[in-house]
Amino acid sequence: MNKLGKDCMPCTVKRSMAIILTLMMIISALFGSGNLTYAADGLMVLKTATHPEGTVGKAVINKNDVTFTVPFNYSKDTLDLSNVTYVLETDYKLEKIDPKPSSAKVEGSPVIMTVHYTYKNNTGTTTGNDAEFAGSTQYNIYVKRAQPVVDKIKYSLYVNTLVDFNADDFEKVCLDGTGQKLNYVKFTLPSSSRGTLYSNYGLSSQSKVSSTSKYYDDDIDDISFVPYSNYSGTVVISYTGYNSKGVSYTGEIEIQVLKIVTDADDITYKTGSYTPIDFDADDFDDECRDVTGKRLDYIKFTLPSSTYGTLYYNYSSRSQSKVSSTTKYYDDDLDDITFVPKPSYTGTVVISYTGYNIDGKSYTGAVKITVTKEVPVADDIKISTKENTPIRFDDEDFNDASEDSTGVELDYVTFTLPSSKYGKLYYNYTSSSNYGSEVTSSKKYYYEDTPSLYRVTFVPYKDYSGTVTIKYTGYNTDGFSFTGSIKVEVVAVPKTEGSLYFKDVTKDYSWAASQIDYLFKEGVVAGTGNNNYSPAQNVTRGDFMLMLYRALDLTATDRGNFSDVPKDSYYYKAIAVAKSLGIAKGYGDKFMPTAGITREDAMVLVDRALIIENKRLSAGKESDLYAFKDRNSVSDYAVTSVATLVKAGIIQGNNSYLYPKSMISRAEMAVILYKVLQLD
């Protein structure tokens, strides 16, 4: 390097250093003491955000989300945010909020605001660039609606008893808390060491409540809480309710399970699940004297759960009423108080009471009733038939047995089949060659459904006479059973003679003799003179109408008659009534009362009369006539009537023939009318 170069180097360095020093001085001037050294954005500096309305209060801050919560019943759609107070963390200073939100929609999209701040450490714990800086952070402001707040539902019960939920309680807290009707609830199940929630407790449909099931308004009344054996204390059951608009809320049921502590000794009774038990006034008076030294004046009862049964005053009388918890029952009244168990319940029922002696001093006591399982036995159903004559059961007899023994309508029965040496039970029986099926012991025969009980027929064994006992088990509509028996008296028919009243109804008419005698005794038919009945003689249309009129006891206002029916004829009124009822339609203005009547016309008249009299027969179809070879000869207008009577077993035909166009004889007519009367 030459001398010139060496001489110039110090100058260059000096100039560079001077430039650097100048820049540092400028920077120092700009960012000297009291100014920030750098910028820091996105710090979570917001400590609190407080709304001036007390029902709203402080927001919940979670990172960048600021959430205000308004009450469920807040009436406005938006929340005013203009007066919210924002406080930053220690050492942070709020410079400005830009933009500053004025309002936010309830349950709407968030409102965005940016908080600008500065930081200065005033504690001296940091040095250098960390001591002072500036920055900004973006926040999302939400406004949510709080869940409804509902009142607690409270129940109390005694140890080893249960409590039924009341749908009205759940409806009320829902309406009060949300302003809407209840739709359904879902329960959080209690610990089994405290007790169990059941639906339909004690019924055949009993089941445990499920935490995943929805229990609607109509279901809640069927829910019961059954405490664990001997448990006492407080059980809290949480639930989630949903109103009619789908809004959910949480609630609690608080159940106090109380130990029974009474002044008097327990009054104890025992009974069966179907047997009412009467209270004894002397028992209450004895306890009153033992505790207070004075005789009893009156008692006030705490009513038991309906799951156990019901207390009645003057039970089974016209003045019967349920016992009231607010009524005073005096010494003379107590003998008239009856506890009627619910058939589904077995166990111990505790009924607490407060007694008052004649001086007005009170004491406490309890009635404990032990209820054991009991299967009621219904009264015998008694029916009778002639030898070799089938008899159809009357479903009303079985329903009466159910209501009398259990207090509830019949659902169905199952039969214990009789020995075949006495006879058999058939379903839809019309003849030995035409029936639906044999009755089986495993099948249910219903009162209001199919297979129908009223279609069951007992067919005695050939030539058997005597009493046949057919046992059955009935089930009422609540699912509870009872037992009973049908006593069928099969009356022997004399083998060497026919009618007991008509000499021309000989053993050749054994198939109709007993029916003719029955109708004669009932005043439905009469003889033809000289102790004769003339069984083979064809029946005239007038005579048939008269006998049908008598058999069914038809009545109607006389609105005129057919022109060919003489007013002084013995069948005038019968035909006039049948015409008024629409049974007899004739041929134009003629009825032709002296002409013979065909078998199919007789069936049409019988079918119309049964409809008018509200006799229950299932309408027949053409398929019901398939067993008869001459079915195609039945007139179109008569098909339904003929099929209906065949289906009901009133018409059986002869050797697979109906003979619809043949005239009907007096003997055949008697058999038909007898079977019609057996429908009652």
Instruction: Determine the strand fraction and express it as a percent band.
Output: 25-35%
> Helix/strand-derived class?
alpha+beta
The count of strands amounts to 37
The count of helical stretches stands at 11
Morphology: elongated
For the largest beta-sheet, the strand count, sense and barrel status come to:
6 strands, mixed
Indicate the multimeric state: single chain
Roughly what percent helix? Answer: 10-25%
Separation of termini?
Answer: 146 Å
**Residue windows where pLDDT falls under 50 for at least 5 positions:** 1-11, 24-37
Q: Give the overall pLDDT as a whole number.
A: 88
| Gyration radius from CA atoms, angstroms | 47 Å
Summarize the structure.
The chain is an alpha+beta fold and 680 residues long. Helices cover 20% and strands 30% of the residues.
